[in-house]
Amino acid sequence: MFFLDMLEIDRVVRQLKSMYGSIDESLRGWNWSNEILSPPINGIYLGVSELTNRYCSTYRDIYLKRVLSKPAPYSYKTIRGWIYHRVCKKVVEKAKSILYLEGIVNGPKLYSSLLIDRSDEISRILEEYKVSSYLRENEVQKLKREAEVLYGFLALQAAARLDRVLSHLARPELESIISKVIPVDVERIVNGQLLGLSSELRIDMFADKRIVIEIKTGEIRDFHKYTITGYALAVESDLDIPIDYGIVSYILISRENVKIRNKIYFIGDELRREFLEIRDEAFNIIQRGIDPGKPPECPEYCIYYGACS
Ligand code: SF4
What we know:
This protein is α+β, with helices and mostly antiparallel strands. The protein is built from 10 helices and 5 strands; from the N terminus they run ααααααααβββαββα.
């Protein structure tokens, strides 16, 4: 994505490589049939976010959703997450299609072409997600404004990156320009069933076929590192590609400014084991079918907060 500087990421990845060793082969996703990786129950497949958004230490969220079939209510934050993700995807798609249609243009031209129908694009996205049926009118307007700010920010980043790429190439060729401006696959789908995960896991971004990237639109939480770990294992099991690194990219919009914070992780043995413990405990909860009860304190940011009785 435009806000990821792959040179900077390469530098951090090299640092991480020198700090951490290799990864135990038995913890690679392609060894899905061994005792550690194979899922405890066959025929049940869980989402990576569902497992790893560990707001609830007793796993009551899993019990409510999977045993009582009671989904979490949609909050403003949930819907904001959908819309921000969709906006990111839309700008990437549009930037690519403008470059394919118009050929090698410069940054300002790309920027103006991206912005021409920004407002209509955002309205279409809000309609696609039926946002007005979940939110009050003032919340819809707030979200619309945020989505426009994010769209404009990404368009500017794309234009700046295009100019930077063009400035380094003596003989620019369209395909190589596009791959340098947009060095990621967006919403890559992988099948995680061999590990007890969903068959259509959507990875927000996949860079250079070796780094999984998750976009988050809320506060920084330590458990987000398990989301990229789950995706890394799923890619390894589905595509036989080793994934050693992941990035959690936080997008925050405040007073019309977009702030991006990237956290890069080495997906080593410890993270892999911890993710598998979370997965196995979730399966335990489903298999037992008994209410695990509430933790001593429920965090207000839990998706079930206020709807957990
Ligand atoms: S409200 Fe409390 S008990 Fe219910 S899912 Fe959230 S953290 Fe768990």
